[in-house]
Amino acid sequence: MSGPGGSAPDSPAAAEAPAAVDAPATVEQHTIDHIPDHERHGRVRDLFTMWFGTNIAPLPLVTGAMGVQVFHQSFWSSVLAILVGQLVGGIFMALHSAQGPQLGVPQMIQSRAQFGVIGALVIVVVAAAMYVGFFASNIVLAGKSLHGLAPAVPVNGGIVLGALGSAVICWVGYRLIHTLNKIATWVLGLGIAVGIAVVAFRGLPDDFFTRGGFTFAGWLATVSLSALWQLAFAPYVSDYSRYLPRTVRTPATFWATYGGSCLGSTLSFLAGTVVALAAPGADDTVAGFDSAAGAFGPVVLVLFLFSVINHNALNLYGAVLSLITIGQTFRAHWTPRRTARGVVSGTVLVVALLVAVGVSDDFVSRFVNLVSVLLIVLIPWTAINLIDFYLVHRGRYAMTDFFAADGGRYGRFNRTALSSYVLGIVVQLPFVSTDLFTGPLVAPLGGADLSWLVGLVVTAPVYYFWARPRTTEPHPAAASVAQEEPARTVPTA
Questions:
Q1: Total-model pTM
Q2: Is 463 part of a structural domain of the chain?
Q3: Which tens digit of pLDDT belongs to each residue from 350-395?
Q4: What's the CATH code of the domain at 305?
Q5: Phi/psi of residue 335, each to 5°?
Q6: Does residue 205 lie in a domain region?
Q7: Which of 47, 131, 214, 363 falls 20 to 30 Å from 4 in CA-CA distance?
Q8: In degrees rounded to 5, what are phi and psi of residue 57?
Q9: Per-residue pLDDT tens for 155-167?
Q10: If you ran DSSP here, which 8-state letter would residue 142 be given?
């Protein structure tokens, strides 16, 4: 078994010396294809800055405030719930990240090993919808932030500018995304820390530590919100580790990702909690931060504007890779490159702009409900993917079969995975708590949504016991091939 405690066993590359690395191009050339050894680059610590910088953003700030605003927890109760949720949810997120250097392909492509080349489309379509929705909601936030800083710029104009900024980052690709998050780690991290300090030094309300209280149901609900924030990264986290050399040890990848993501998101969640208690009358949490921070408020808004544009590039990048994966499913001999990424980026950009501009007044609240539903169908995928990688196949896959029209040894459909997946969704329904649907067991739990936990606990063992006897691991020779770029000549776009 491979995992945080060691690198994948039986991998022929585990003991190889690093291959000669070509200088990576400024604009990323690859999309969903396998990254060959000679193009691998970067250091494990880049994953820490990648996920720390990404998580210093308005959305985790807003989500962190909900423990106080929605579930009426006290400061200390909310802090404890946030920490528990982040530390638990981050485990699954980081385990996905550790797959990247071993396989060198995007997460959605690797899902074909569990579900089959056609069966995996269920997951890819859901992931694409989530990314497009996240992208559209974030450009609405960018438009409103820019309008707040410069009232002469209309909200719709700000939406367009924010979307174009994210699109440029997405088109340049992997290297620029990592570089910007290195900058964000220091600039945004310092900025939000100073912002919290300013809010505290300007004086907290007398009831700051006594407002609210502890209810087990409200505390569980806050834990769930915190954990789901981490779990939402699962479908694309390994996309940003896939260029690292295969010689990178799995524990190093895990801990760099886990530390960066948990620390960054915890800082933002805690900032949201502080602001919610320090400025309870604010229209929204970001505006409350601006007000509570006094003269430092406009600086916070500028930093958040940069953060939204930077973070949103990941949503567009994930949407593009997912949509390209859908297209490649029906064109097995197509290897899309940067031109394809540019065309698909432009298409997503136009669609998201039309949606965001058309419903900008109420889009974010609508999208929160949509994401809640999408996460329900992604939770069982997380369990199946991790069990398959670490316990069933143990990191050994036939890479060329990922791109075969018939799915090779993985086939078009995998009934075991799909059956486990459907079961994982069904068992969650009684515990789901959203505006669109509320399960019958939510009320006895005081409104807490524990569907994600039930989905993980049920799906993981079911898939393991169903899949293990039926799995034929690649022959050692096939495992060796799995580490190389697919050996065939294909047209590029």
A1: 0.87
A2: no
A3: 888 887 776 655 555 565 666 677 778 889 999 999 999 999 998 8
A4: 1.10.4160.10
A5: -115, 95
A6: yes
A7: 131
A8: -155, 165
A9: 888 888 888 999 9
A10: H
